[in-house]
Amino acid sequence: MKFIETLALGALTLAISANGAPLASQDWALKKRNAASLTLPANCLKQNNIGVGWLPDDDNGYISIDTITNTTGPACFYGLYSHFGADLSVSNSDILGDKLSDVKNSGAIAVLSMMPFSVSLSGVTTEVAAQVALVVKEYTDQGITVLLRFAHEFNYYTTSGMFHGTSTDFKTAWINIYNAVKSNPKVKMFWSPNNTQNTGSLAEWWPGDDTVDVVGIDAYKTQSTDTFDSFYQEFYQAYSASKNLPFVIAETGTINDSYKAEWLKELASQSQSKYSNYVGFSWFEYNKPSEGDFRVVTGPIDYAKQVLTGMGNNKAASTKSYSTESASHSPTATVGGNQGAKSTAATSQTTTETPPNSTATALKSIKDSISSMQNALESIQSSIAKLESK
């Protein structure tokens, strides 16, 4: 225990400046912005150290995430969509109330896709951004970590007419949102374009290294030649590996029943040496009559049960190298939102976990201790930020 205590003390020391003062807000922001900064809930479903999450169907009535997790075990991520305008009235009904309660009960990280549908990107002013920050704070005040996926798939929605504005408007809006939430240590800004065959085309949409905490790209498998590498490798190298940022797939799936099991397997069995920043993925568990049936748990066939090992076991698979956070909000329920879908990948073998030896057990205890210290420090930093704002 002496060794573990020493390491924990070292972790605390890292959070204190040379003169004994707490980290300055800019230093804390830098701490949030690296590949080791995103922790998965301790008991959520993991495969090969990859976190598994869901976007429960919200197009066909109110469906709680426990409709899925009663079968799979607790989710690592819970995805919700919010369509908002300048007054955020729609946003409140989309993601607050019962849905906030469901996320808290689920124990999952909330992936909030905040979509400016009835306000242009240029209309996302500092005042609107401040309102977004207040909505997100409703989550973090409940101890929930939030990945704030503002105006996701911007490269698609600005061409389809759902979002209105240019890449410059997007970047200005993004920075306004970032400035509104940057003092909240439990919020991470999640930059998430739509699948593209030209990764270089995304450069004009990049808002700056100092304003992004997590990156990912949405892609859906539509043909047998779609693979994890063909969808994600180039993007991963350009925006995750080169910038040392966590990589999360916020939504993916397929409507082709013959691809569902193999795509789930490939998503959950990527090499940690090749994709060391890959934290996890969320499956689009929707049945959309206009597009097709994406479901792999709640549909006619439970493909997830065929592929994901340890389902129903809260400690399924091992702890992610990013470490795992103690569940300050316990596992049980959750809900989805309104969205469309697009394109993604193929086979691989799921890795099973070997029983931990004494060294592995000691290392896990160390990671848990450090994670607890990080959570405590986040609370301290949040309190400091509140005092500074007065």
TrEMBL record:
Domain of life the protein comes from: Eukaryota
Range of residues in the leader sequence: 1-20
InterPro entries registered for this protein in UniProt: GH (IPR017853), GH26_dom (IPR022790), Glyco_hydro_26 (IPR000805)
Residues at the catalytic site: 153, 251
Pfam families noted in UniProt: Glyco_hydro_26
Stretches for region Disordered: 318-360
PROSITE patterns: GH26 (PS51764)
Record's keyword terms, sorted: Glycosidase, Hydrolase, Signal
Biased composition range(s): Polar residues: 318-336
Keyword Signal attached: yes
Domain spans labelled GH26: 33-300
GO molecular function, one term: mannan endo-1,4-beta-mannosidase activity
Segments of skewed composition (Low complexity): 341-360
GO biological process: substituted mannan metabolic process
Family: Belongs to the glycosyl hydrolase 26 family.
PANTHER family: GH26 DOMAIN-CONTAINING PROTEIN, MANNAN ENDO-1,4-BETA-MANNOSIDASE E-RELATED
Record's protein name: GH26 domain-containing protein
Lineage of producing organism: Eukaryota, Fungi, Dikarya, Ascomycota, Saccharomycotina
